[in-house]
Task: structure prediction
Amino acid sequence: MPRYGMAVDLKKCVRCRTCYITCKVLHNIPSQFDNGRKYTRVKLIEPEAGKYPAVRRFFYPSHCMHCDDAPCVTVCPTGASFKDKDGIISFDPKKCIGCRYCILACPYDARYFNHETGIVDKCDFCEDKVRQGKEPYCVEKCIGHAITFGDLDDPNSEVSRMITEAGAVALSPQLGTKPKVFYGNMR
Amino acid sequence: MGSKLSRRSFLKLTGVAVGSGLAYSKFGGLKLSALSPAEATGTDDEKWKHTACALCLMCPMQVKVKNGKIVDVRGEDIYPWKGRVCAKAYGGIWGRVYAPDRIIYPLKRVGKRGEGKFVRCSWDEVITNFSKKLKEYMDEGHPEAFEIWWGCPVQADNMYFLHYFSRIMGCSISYMHGQICFGDHTSEKSVTFGGSRAGDLVNGTADYINTKYAVIAAQNFPGTVFAPGTQCGASAFWPVYLKAKENGMRHLSVDPKLTDSGALANEWIPIKPGTDGAFAYGVANVLIKEKLYDEDFLLKYTNAPQLIRVDTKQAMKDDAGKYLAWDSASNSAIPLPPADQRGNLSLGIGKTYTVGDVQCKTALTLYAEESEKYPPEKVIEICELPFLPDKIVEIARNLGNNKPAVLFYPGFTTGRYTNWFQVLRIYSCVNMLLGNIERPGGWYFPKHKFNTGTGWPEPPEVPEYPNPDLKVVPGPWGNLMSVELLDKAPCYKEPRDFHPATVALPWDHFTAMQEGKVKALFSTAENSAITQVNTDYVYDCLNKLEMIVVGDQLPKDFIEMADYVLPEAAYVERNQLFTFSALGQDGQEHATAIMRSRTIELPGEVKTVTWFFTEVSKRIGLGAYFENIDTDYGWWNKMLKHAKLPVTAEELVENGPYVEKYPMTYDVMFKPIETRSGRFEMYSNELAEECYFNEKSIWYESQYIYPVPCHIPIAEPKGKDEFYLVSGKASWHQKSATQNNRYLMEDEIEGGCPFSPLYINAERASELGLKEGDMVEVECVGPTKQEEPHVFDDSAIGYKQKVRVHITEGLHPSVAFTHFAAGHKAKSMLPKAREGVLHSAFVPLTVEPYGGGCGKNYSIVRLRKG
Ligand code: SF4
Ligand code: SF4
Ligand code: SF4
Result:
């Protein structure tokens, strides 16, 4: 059984925002202009740093980190949030009672509450696709070929090599949740 | 009427009832929702179909159609796309084609123009009234009082057909938007490098993957269709850019704003607006001083060695009228030889030669002398660059030492003032110094292009053309032909007022409206009501018209000005051929033919524009010219045949792109240089003879077209509260097709670059006591007619709008920045599309001599808190 993870090579990310939009439209996530709410599984983090003219703007797409020690799973009272065998932090909408504990527990702000359906939603690594042997949408569609996905337990997988060879790291590892999404060439 | 109400009432007229499930599943995240109810019924056919995007250019793409609905999108598996397309391509399908406010019935205006009140009407009513109006003008002998404006060649439904229609009817036609977009660039490149090389140089086509150092100005390139490198949109550019970076290219962004491409670049040079010419001359100055120029290139391919009289600054000619150059072997003047012949010519920098009894200097010497006005310290001061003077030296050395694998590109977006024609000329000359044309890593001209012609039906296919006296001249965009009317007449008189490669002369259209010479207008694939500058004046002109008909898929400003609105087929609902030659990340030329195709059924009463005009032609009694035209396949097959391609339009639709691959070949002389000297012109003989020294020219003795390019300062903001108002494009936007788009306009797509607010440099903001999110009133205060000789109409002065500020360190202090086409007027657009300032409304209409630009970024504003 693989243990799935993802790595984003920021050197190849061209800030095109295709990952954001494909995730939205292909997962039928309503537009902000349908209901006035900003639902998204992918967040684009783009902080500015420094003083004019020595100023830079960083950019990275962020979503559920599929933490190995996932606080969202621990706090979920019904088991709606659970860790699947392949390491994907999965979600059973039928069991969700809308208590939103998981939203509070998640240190990466990865979840949102869908007011229309009354349940929570977040990135699931496109698990339906992955289990058919395909890649998540953001990986398949990324203009820069910046995102890789695969088995973290296989040292030869592209995603493992991004960690071992290109030095991709998790964001805020000190939070101790053991994320399975890594970022390489952070500048 | 409240804006919300307006939008709701507009929605009722369009696709669906307000508040219904619209076209979307509301169950984001529910695994059950992979299929919408509509998809769950019906037959389960599923097919990837070949078509093309249109949100900026025409990236070849496939859409997956399931039960008649598009459910996925991907790029064609050809270079440079290799299966991928950008965010806009997805926004296009879900936020435009399937938008709940999609216009699917013909509409008739019932309120005042601009009020946004419409009722549904029949196609018959539109066709009848349109035909009646056009026929009326035709009967009066003035069909040209009816104008067709089209804006985007990939969004317009068969612009060749539109031009044919105008030829048959005798009405005017204009690629109105093109001038704002790139018209002055095309003119300058034609003047400097000759017409046959202009298009590729405007596009910035380059051997990018081998480039070592690229200086790219005024351009957030993903948001600008003409991404340097590939001739195609952002999706084609990124793979090439990344390959270039992988190969070690260093990229320097020269822009008042730290754009997305600036943030990706190795270095950002924040420049003060209007000073680009001084910057480029500063680079030239170092290149010349340190002898970092390519002498061989200059002697062989440019008129740098051409002799110019010291007394008059005119070209020295022999008795036969030939341009002269200095031959160092015979120590005498000889006729400037054709390009490619270096002979014993001399660049003679700093020297004076005596020919007969006339003192002469070389063109290069004059350029060098001009460059001496811009030593590094001076450039830092003029451009208000926050660096030591050594920075200019460093940039010039990087260019000089890496030549010819270097690019020096003036860009499209954040520049564009009345001095822009000369800015472009100065930039062009720096590229000549660098000898980077048709060299590995430099500018490149694809050698394999398909010559498709226009597909115009000609007698005997159709009856002899009516109006045999109509003069037809090359129109915008190469192979298009135009009736020589408004746009083109000033370009063909003696002497010319504008270069024939200008795309449109917008002010002439507006004057014609004011004078009642243009009385009706049809517009498609553009939003010129607000993309032309000086919006109040534009609206005033439009309000004078007897009839306005606008076609589109979604509400926009121009639609609210229309008397009739046409529900136009979207780009994936009709057929069109495109050919181009893309440079891939594999280092090859890919001569490509693709078909945009109808992948889904037309919703409601949606029709193509070609269908509409065919119906109109029948009513007018000229149906014979249109009845046998097949715009789905026949038209395109004729063009494919003209290009001698072994493929039919049907096959392109069924099987996808046709591609011929060629290795890149570098050859400066692959076709003749169509300038007056037959060489790339550092000293422009055309500008000298046509304008500057020509007493009959309206530009006689104007420094804006002085044959040796010069930097001309523009008007400046004065007070502590005054700024240049500069607009640029967001990476995920491009043109009217991407605005009002419910996915591309979302807040969350913006990351750290909010779309609607006014960006202000942090220090300037603190001086004005402004904090993030504060409201300011923005008022246009210039350039006035006193400050700027080429202001044509200054209605914009005094224009005011309120906006929130966004405070950033990534902006030149002299600038207030807004994204292009924020602050829309139309009440039927998304509320967010109306937030912010409408940049064009703050730009007085200026006319750039000979190049015909409209100074689209030339605006000075005053900010007031609250
Ligand atoms: S699609 Fe890829 S390149 Fe584009 S923003 Fe997302 S990660 Fe970056
Ligand atoms: S990122 Fe948040 S939602 Fe995702 S697994 Fe970790 S804690 Fe749970
Ligand atoms: S780059 Fe332009 S044409 Fe290409 S997919 Fe994106 S929006 Fe469409």
Remarks:
- Residues 176-193 of chain B form the longest helix (18 residues).
- The mean pLDDT of chain B is 91.
